[in-house]
């Protein structure tokens, strides 16, 4: 979902692979948390603790869009 289209995460994935996408998402999470909003990678990813970033929870699309808005990427 985050890797499709023109999202900043999709661009990061194209340029830096999965590691680039993960690093950007973590940066967004830190940015949103600094703004006072609580996010964790486990909010969207079912098995993030195990390194599985493919399987998503049902609310992942809404949470991803909210994260992009709150993190205010360029």
Structure description:
By secondary structure, the chain is mainly alpha-helical. The chain has one domain. Helix content is 53%, strand content 11%. The chain is built from 2 helices and 2 strands. A two-stranded antiparallel ribbon has the order 1-2. Helix 1 (8-34) crosses helix 2. The radius of gyration is 11 Å and the shape is globular. 18% of the residues are buried. The model has no long low-confidence stretch (mean pLDDT 81).
**First-to-last CA distance:** 19 Å
Mean residue pLDDT: 81
Output the strand order for the largest sheet.
1-2
Given the structure, what is the number of helices?
2
Overall 3D form: globular
Largest β sheet strand count, sense and barrel closure: 2 strands, antiparallel
Helix content: 40-55%
SSE string: HEEH
Binned strand content = 5-15%
Number of domains: 1
User: What is the multimeric organization of the chains shown?
Assistant: single chain
Low-confidence stretches: none
Give the tally of β-strands: 2
Gyration radius, to the nearest Å? 11 Å
Structural class by secondary-structure content: mainly alpha
């Amino acid at each position: 979902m985050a890797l499709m289209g023109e999202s900043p995460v999709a661009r990061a994935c194209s340029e830096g692979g999965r590691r680039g996408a993960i690093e950007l998402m973590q940066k967004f999470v830190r940015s949103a948390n600094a703004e006072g909003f609580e996010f964790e990678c486990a909010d969207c990813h079912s098995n993030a603790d195990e390194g599985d970033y493919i399987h998503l929870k049902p609310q992942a699309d809404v949470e991803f869009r909210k994260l992009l808005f709150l993190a205010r990427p360029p």
